[in-house]
């Protein structure tokens, strides 16, 4: 999504300017053509040479710097940009943008561009919650700016409060989401499930499986970056939250079923990537079962079959994690659960399945067509699945 995109990264004079260097590096690593514009105050905190080394492009710091033949710097940057991202956005730069002031290279570029603009405010808590700043942010939102809220934490002053720059991964997520708003899944509502459900035995123990949630999270990111409105229903994982999506946290199969029913009421697509436990204890002990109780026998009953029980006009995509007879078992599940697509993978295969960053899958469609994919990253697999979802959505217009 970021490859070959021209990203104008505006850096204003807040202490979080040093974090913008990390953002510039990660954007460049993702294939973006990053062009950095710094206010005079920002250059007092981080040297322009830092950004030049990270992006491979000269850094613009003034209105009257040399530009390509017959080009006016702020106009050429504004025209080139696929997106303008301002990190950090200080109270001062926010106020100037809200008032339409264009007295430096960054504010001139903002005023001249037709590209989407993302800003990430960062400042002292008192400045962030000041009514003037809140009004200015509200003004920018009404004009179509995407504003990433500052987060709570320790600030440069040593105080604790709102005003801290979010994690770079979150900013990256919002940037890719903003760029994808007019892509092939624009406006579609997609529900994705992820992780392995946990079925309680007692207050501290549960039955679960080896699912890491990585495939579901990759699917949520892919759908988001292609313009979809995404809801991610996830069990507890060690993964970072997916920026720009609604996240619903659940634990058990029953909780996941309830969440799926609620969120698919207006959905276009349901993708069940979660590894839902097949069985759960018939009864849950009210207190921790002590080891000195001797042997422990659990009576298990079936969990809700979410894909079979949840129906609607939406497209249903399921997963089949198998250890034998991969295609045959997947085809059976495709029919029994009335799916449009099933994604089958052998979880015993090397570098594939639970916990890995890659996957080797076979995509099987309702009409019988199969797509046997080579080993890919889970994000690449997610894109292939979305390609098939897009094709199906076109047939249902």
* Total domain units: 2
Structural class, from helix and strand content? Answer: alpha/beta
Number of helices: 14
Question: How does the major sheet shape up?
Answer: 8 strands, mixed
Measured between the Cα atoms of the first and last residue, the distance is: 26 Å
Q: What is the 3D shape?
A: globular
For CATH, the homologous superfamily of the largest domain is named as: CoaB-like
Overall description:
By secondary structure, the chain is of the alpha/beta class. The chain has 2 domains: 6-179, Rossmann fold (3-Layer(aba) Sandwich), CATH 3.40.50; 189-395, Rossmann fold, CATH 3.40.50.10300. The chain has 14 helices and 21 strands. Helix 5 packs across helix 8. The longest helix has 18 residues, at 378-395. The two termini are 26 Å apart. 43% of the residues are buried. The model has no long low-confidence stretch (mean pLDDT 93).
Q: What keyword list fits this structure?
A:
397 residues, alpha/beta, Rossmann fold, 2 domains, eight-stranded mixed beta sheet, five-stranded parallel beta sheet, globular
Furnish the topology, listing elements before pairings.
Blueprint: E1 6-11, H1 17-29, E2 33-38, H2 40-43, H3 48-55, H4 73-80, E3 83-89, H5 91-99, H6 105-112, E4 117-121, H7 125-129, H8 131-142, E5 146-147, E6 151-154, E7 160-164, H9 168-179, E8 189-194, E9 199-200, E10 206-207, H10 214-225, E11 229-234, E12 246-249, H11 253-263, E13 269-272, E14 279-281, E15 300-302, H12 306-309, E16 315-322, H13 326-336, E17 341-346, E18 358-359, E19 361-365, E20 370-372, E21 376-377, H14 378-395
Parallel strand pairs: 1-2, 1-3, 3-4, 4-5, 8-11, 8-13, 11-12, 13-16, 16-17
Antiparallel strand pairs: 6-7, 9-10, 14-15, 17-19, 18-21, 19-20
Helix pairs in contact: 1-3, 4-6, 5-8, 10-14
